Structures are given as C-alpha cells and as structure tokens.
Amino acid sequence: MSLVEKIQKTHEDSLRKGELVFIETEIESFVEDGVEYQLRLVPQLDKKPEQTAEAVNAEKAATSVNPFLPYNPDLFVTEFEDHVVLLNKFCVVPGHLLVVTKEFERQSLPLNPSDFAALWKTMSSIESNTLGFYNCGAMSGASQPHKHMQILPLGQLESPPVEPLFKGANLTPGKTGQLPGLPFLHYAVLFDQEKIKELGNPEAVGDYLVDLYSDLLDSIFEEVTKYHLSEGVRLLGSVSYNLLVTSKWMLIVPRKEDKFGQISVNSLGFSGLLLVRSKEDLNVVKRTGYLNLLSALGYPLPKAKPVQSEALPSL
C-alpha cells in the first residue's frame, strides 16, 4: 500500500470511528497586488481546543497536556526512526499530516537533519502538491508544545499563493534573499534541484536542507536583534518564526505578535492561506488588507542604506 493510499484509508477509518474531525469551510479568494490569497471561513474551528501563547511556551503545558505522548493510534499513518506521521485530528483539508518527534522536544527548538529528512521523505512520497510548515515558538501560532511539523495537501492549487512572488526575486539557488512584494522581514531560498537529484536519499537531502535553513535562521536572528537594539530592548530568548517548505523553496518569517485582534495566524497565513472563524474576521482581513495584517504580526523590513555617491571631479 502506497503512502497516499494509507493516508486515505486512515482518514476514512478514523472519520468513521469519530476519532477525526473534518471541518467544512467556505473558500473565498482575495486578490491584492496581483496575488490571489485564499481565505477559508471556518466557524466550526471553535471545536478545536486552543492554547494561549504563554501555555505553548510553558514547561508545565509540555508535561501536562500532550496529545502526542501517547498519540492516538487511529490517526497513525507511518513512522521513521525519530518521528511518527499522524493525521491532524482537526482538519479542514483531508490528508493534513503531522510529522511528530517520538520523544518530547519543545516546539521552540530549531529543526535538525532528522526532522528535515522525515519531512522530505513524507512530502516526496505524496503524489499531489504539498506544503510543509513549522510553527516555532510562542508567537508563531503554534497550538501544541511538542515539536511537530505539518504537511498540507494543496488540492486544486498548483502551488501556495505566495509562490509567484519568487518569480521576480532573482534568487540564486542556495543563496538567501528576499521577495519583492512582501513588506515585512523575511528571508527565502531556492533549492538547487540538480543537487537534490544527486543527493538522492532523504537523509542526504535533510543535511542539505538544514544547511539552507540555518542560513535563514542566522539572517532573521541578526535582523531581529538589530531591531530590538534600535528599540532599546535587549532580545531575550529565542525568536518565534514561521517556516514554509515546498519541493522548490523555503521561506522564513520572524514573528513578534501571535494574533491580529482575535485572528490567530500560523505559517499557513504567510503562505497565502488564512483561516478565519467568522464573517466578522473575514471582513477585518478585507478592510485591513492581507499584507498589512501580516506586517502587523512580523518585523519591519530593515531600511535600505543610502547609496554614497562618488565626489565629482572639479572642472
């Protein structure tokens, strides 16, 4: 049985048993600056228990409430040496997967080669387009303190809504850069597809991806540190961020706010896919503007340094 077939069978079985909650959504497109974002109205999302940012970051929450230790066996799909792959119990898209560490690790920790290998092996085994993501830290929209990555099938979408922004970025594969059109601090990197083909196995690809990811982390940490110093505040602890991963690229966005009003935003929001709980929240997004809303949750782009013109020779 292929992984795709196993995901489908597990989804059907767990739905029939009542162990999985599939939540219907209303989809509405929202075009801004030539990018078509997808808003999903999910009034039933209130069925999903939500933890505060403080609870996610608290050690007590890690030991007292953990749906992954033990995990629900009815949601189990497959496993690797250090990870299990589970169906997301509360899903708005069939086949939404969680790639969870077998042993407890905090959601505020960076990903390692084993994490990337498990993520890549799972994504590359699914025939349809997928989006991987990681909500890291208390301000990232993470809902559980146990380290887990997520994989979302994109269905009818050929790619995440933000992908067209990569076309005008002139990024060199393997080199960190930024995307024109995103007005908040972020860094992105294109994968060297030839190198990935040469590496072949997921473990080697995991080592390659973690190197690129480390460059992204270094870039955001440097800029976030500068921002806090300019505000007269010393940066204490780790930086919360959202990480998006496709078969072609990675994008990282540091976060300083968890919510916009009552609208909670995780990595999916920065991919161009945003879940809202009510018509009122939907209207807030439209009035505010999609990119303005995301900008309020992240850090400002660093100001460009003025270009020093050379002195003209005297006549």
Automatic annotation (TrEMBL):
Keywords from the named record: Nucleotidyltransferase, Transferase
Biological processes annotated in GO: nucleotide metabolic process
Domain of life of the native organism: Eukaryota
Ap4A phosphorylase 1/2 N-terminal domain mapped to chain residues: 2-166
Stretches assigned to the ATP adenylyltransferase C-terminal domain: 181-300
A GO MF label: ATP binding
Active site location: 148 (nucleophile)
Protein name stated in the entry: ATP adenylyltransferase
Organism: Basidiobolus meristosporus CBS 931.73
Lineage: Eukaryota, Fungi, Fungi incertae sedis, Zoopagomycota, Entomophthoromycotina
